[in-house]
Every structure is written in C-alpha cells, then in structure tokens.
Write a structure and sequence with these properties.
binds fe (ii) ion, three-stranded antiparallel beta sheet, mainly alpha, 3 strands
Length: 208
C-alpha cells in the first residue's frame, strides 16, 4: 500500500551550483526526501494495521509521524520545483501585483521571507502561502515540517531552513544560503501555483 513516491528532480543534482552544491542536492533529495516518503508510507501501513486490529494504542504517535513525514514530502516536492538553474529576477503579472498588494513591494516581500527563514529556532521552513479565506498571500514560519501553520494555507514557495539544506556548503553562514536561493527562484512555477491556488473555494461563509 504505497501512496507516495519520490519525484525526480526537474534538473541534475549539480544544476543549481554554485548556489547549492550537487552534493547537498544529492543527499537532500536522495536521502532526506526519500526517508520522508518511505516513512509516510510506513505510517499509512501502520494505521491500516491498527484499524484492522482495532488497536489504537499508538494512534497519537502515528498521527504525529504522518503529519511530520507527509508534510516533509510535500514541502520538499514543492521546493525542488520552485527552483531552476535559470531562476532569479522578480515576478510580473497578476502574481507580481499580488506581491505588491500584500507586502508593499518586492523588496519588502524578499526581506520578510528571508528573515523568516533566518530566524527559525531549530528546524523549519519559510513559506509563502495563499490564504483562501482572506484571499491574500501570507508568509509563514513553519517548525519542523508541519507546525505553526494557519489551516487552509496553500504553500506556493518554500525555503528549506533545516541544516541539511545548507550546512555542507555554507556551514553556520545560513543567511548566505537564504540569500543565494533568490538566484534560483522559478517564477514560472510559483506563478502557476498562485494561479491554481486562487481558484480554491473553501466555503465557510462570510469569514473574512
Ligand atoms: Fe530538507
């Protein structure tokens, strides 16, 4: 009963050099992301077993493990597609206008997202999400892969702030890594995610 699979990278391991080394990408995708996929599938199997046996003694731990590993799988899958060797610059069109509307201008948006990544205590992510109730872009600071999130936010653009994302190359200079990724953003991918996310209708009445 395998539900999740490791996606291929849309580029070679060394394609994002010099900003992210090929060795980091190889370990990050081939070892870390692989483990999240494997563990998410394992938890689903264990939940299936628990239901069959009607033995829910480990349920809380399994739910926690599912949230952690599945969120890790989803965020890494987005992160890979968010980047390209031909990235950087600034987004235009409706998405560029939405950045201006919700953050003032692109530089303020960039500063906030970079600071959110830099100030994570421990492991986590900085994420740009579409919040479908208020119909606005928000930046969130995610602990581990799953905590500190407002429900229903759709991740559009994410920065991995776990040490495994940068330490081999940048050591303790993590802010250099968070600046380097701005040379890699694939605005075409992020804009397409935005265009898709704004179609989402969560019907909870006049909540915003
Ligand atoms: Fe990671």
């Amino acid at each position: 009963m395998n539900h999740y699979t490791l996606p291929d990278l849309p580029y070679d391991y060394n394609a994002l050099e010099p900003h992210i080394s090929g060795k980091i990408m190889e370990l990050h995708h081939g070892k870390h992301h692989t483990a999240y996929v494997k563990n998410a599938n394992s938890v689903l199997e264990q939940l299936d077993e628990a239901r069959k046996k009607q033995d829910f003694a480990r349920l809380a731990a399994l739910e926690r493990a599912l949230a952690f590993n599945l969120s890790g799988h989803i965020l890494h899958s987005i992160f890979w597609k968010n980047m390209t060797s031909k990235g950087g610059g600034t987004p235009l069109g409706d998405f560029g206008n939405a950045i201006q509307k919700d953050f003032g201008d692109f530089q303020r948006f960039r500063k906030q997202l970079t600071e959110v990544a830099s100030t994570i205590m421990g492991s986590g992510w900085a994420a740009l999400v579409w919040e479908p109730i208020g119909k606005r872009l928000l930046i969130t600071q995610i602990y581990d892969h799953q905590s500190n999130l407002a429900q229903a936010g759709v991740p559009l653009m994410v920065i991995d702030a776990w040490e495994h994302a940068y330490y081999l190359q940048y050591e303790n200079r993590k802010t250099e890594f968070f600046e380097a990724v701005w040379n890699l953003w694939n605005w075409q991918d992020i804009t397409a995610r935005y265009a898709s996310a704004i179609q989402l209708n969560i019907d909870i009445g006049e909540a915003a």
